[in-house]
Amino acid sequence: QVQLVESGGGLVQAGGSLRLSCAASVRAFNAYAMAWFRQVPGKEREFVSAISWSGGTIDYADSVKGRFTISRDNPKKMVYLQMNTLKPEDTALYYCAAVVPLPGSRLNGGSSDYDYWGQGTQVTVSA
């Protein structure tokens, strides 16, 4: 059983920063690749960033490169998303996701590549 709980969302002005956290309840956290996705009403869930079990492989969507930073703390079973220079188009419900990846699989695939999901945390960026 894997449980993921996101926190850290909120309302921020454009140009501001937020740090999202994801707490994982799982026995072997360091077996999992972790990712952040986001979704706005009426649109598909969108890949934001992912990190391998060791942190040695990281990927970002082009829309957030240079502004967002993903990290993880395996002993604490936590994943973070530092979001800087936020834009109104970053407004979305942000989800934490986890998967035990198959050898050779991509981290930046679609939402169907991930098996476990949190409930989401809302990020709203005002102009």
The end-to-end span amounts to: 40 Å
> Biggest β-sheet: count, sense, barrel?
7 strands, mixed
User: How many helices does DSSP assign?
Assistant: 0
Low-confidence stretches: none
Helical content (DSSP H or I, runs of 4+):
under 10%
- Content-based structural category: mainly beta
| Anisotropy-based shape | globular
Summarize the structure.
It contains no helices and eleven strands.
List keywords for this structure.
globular; seven-stranded mixed beta sheet; four-stranded antiparallel beta sheet; mainly beta; 127 residues
Account of the 3D structure:
0% of the residues lie in helices and 48% in strands. It is mainly β and 127 residues long. Strands 2, 4, 5, 6, 9, 10 and 11 form a 7-stranded mixed β-sheet that branches. A hairpin with a 6-residue loop joins strand 5 and strand 6.
